[in-house]
Specification:
It is a single chain. Strands 1, 2, 3, 4, 5, 6, 7, 8, 9, 10 and 11 form an 11-stranded mixed beta sheet that branches. The protein is α/β, with parallel strands linked by helices and 205 residues long. It is elongated, with a radius of gyration of 18 Å. It is built from 5 helices and 11 strands. It starts with a strand and ends with a helix.
């Protein structure tokens, strides 16, 4: 099965893949076997800034991606798209100027799903019953904070919810508001999301 890992840097992206089926006419395409201009991260980022989008072909996409960002702090998070059972209401939030879903760091000893359940409850204040529906996928992005560089791996789930619909945003996490949206509304507002999340939801929902 073909592998692909797309890393977002603001509005730019790099796709690491082992399959030519992901060829993109708008992207600069490179094979690591015969190109030396991206021998390190600085060269890779310089080329990305110049071209905007990159597709990198390699026999080991995940390992190659991690090797390029080996000097970045690696952060794993989990989050979820939560739907009220038997109603067309989905749990969303406004955070740092973006339409976003609840998510947060996976703590030691937690599975990705356990972290998603906990983060949903902590960030939105819901107190009812959450149930697993399906795994949506993973997204990757890099960012800087307080002079340090991070590579974040996000694990996303679809969950169902039964219970009190009263919400309370965890403001200390930068969350301005938490609210319920029907499916047609949030799909019409996906441009307000981060690029990785927008693309994931467009392809899975």
């Amino acid at each position: 099965m073909p592998q692909k890992y797309k890393v977002f840097l603001d509005n730019y992206w790099i796709l690491f893949t082992d399959s030519r089926s992901f060829s993109n006419a708008k992207a600069q395409e490179i094979s690591l076997n015969d190109h030396s201009e991206i021998a390190d991260l600085n060269a890779l980022l310089a080329l990305l800034t110049q071209k905007g989008t990159l597709v990198i072909y390699t026999q080991t996409p995940l390992e190659t991606m991690r090797s390029f960002f080996k000097y970045f702090k690696f952060v794993r998070t989990a989050g979820a798209l939560v739907k009220q059972t038997d109603t067309d209401a989905y749990l969303w939030m406004q955070r740092f100027g973006h339409l976003d879903l609840p998510k947060g760091k996976i703590e030691k000893g937690e599975s990705e799903l356990q972290a998603a359940f906990r983060e949903v409850e902590e960030e939105t204040g819901i107190t009812g019953e959450l149930n697993f529906e399906r795994f949506l996928g993973q997204t990757y992005h890099v960012y800087e904070m307080k002079g340090k560089s991070y590579l974040k791996e996000n694990h996303w789930f679809a969950l169902n919810y039964n219970g009190d619909t009263t919400l309370s945003p965890q403001t200390e996490e930068g969350i301005d508001s938490v609210f319920w949206l029907d499916e047609s509304t949030w799909k019409a507002r996906l441009e307000e999301c981060y690029e990785g999340l927008k693309e994931l939801l467009q392809s899975t929902c």
